[in-house]
Specification:
Rna Polymerase Sigma Factor, Chain: A, 181 residues, 11 helices, 2 domains
Length: 181
């Protein structure tokens, strides 16, 4: 069995298993949102879970490797999502990058009060989005507002263009109701 070879230290067997289950990892990662990260970060976490599944699998427990790997990948991704949401990570998740275009705007205006008010408005808007929309609608709307095309959003979420269009339409309706109150 390929798993036994990988556990015995055969590098080729390990690489073959990782390639074989890569699509499963991608599918699982696309279903979650990581604060301060993106899908690639979740894929990396999923691959760590898959690698640990290869090392920790025991045929004696009666589970198939496929199911065990699915469980390990899902748990690793969920742990990453939970870790990213902790308060101790908020400085990382809410900080500005030094290469952020918003900092150039701040440097040009030299008005820290206006900059902070604008930043607070964006944070309030994002919070309203999170409270109003479902997880999927929030992800799609966020990507759309960042300027991604429908095709890019389809690729990032693994959904077809009709699902993306429907999610945006639902989001717009919900947001119109939320902001008209």
């Amino acid at each position: 069995m390929l798993v036994k070879k990988a556990q015995a230290g055969e590098r080729e067997a390990t690489e073959k298993l990782l390639r074989r289950y890569m699509n499963m990892v991608l599918a699982r990662a696309r279903r979650f949102f990581l604060a301060g990260g993106d899908t690639d970060d979740l894929v990396q976490e999923g691959m760590i879970g898959l690698y640990s599944a290869v090392n920790e699998y025991s045929e004696a427990e009666g589970k198939s490797f496929k199911n065990f790997a699915y469980l390990c990948v899902t748990r690793q991704i969920l742990d990453a999502v939970k870790r990213s949401g902790r308060r101790k990570n908020s400085p990382l998740n809410n900080s500005l990058s030094l290469s952020d275009p918003g900092l150039e705007e701040f440097a040009e205006n030299k008005d820290p009060e206006a900059f902070l008010l604008d930043d607070e408005s964006r944070a309030e808007f994002r919070l309203k989005l999170m409270r109003t929309l479902s997880d999927f609608e929030f992800r799609v709307m966020t990507m759309y507002l960042e300027g991604m095309s429908y095709l890019d959003i389809c690729e990032a979420t693994g959904k077809d263009i009709k699902s993306i269009d429907n999610a945006l339409a639902r989001s717009k309706r919900k947001l119109q109701q939320a902001f008209s109150k």
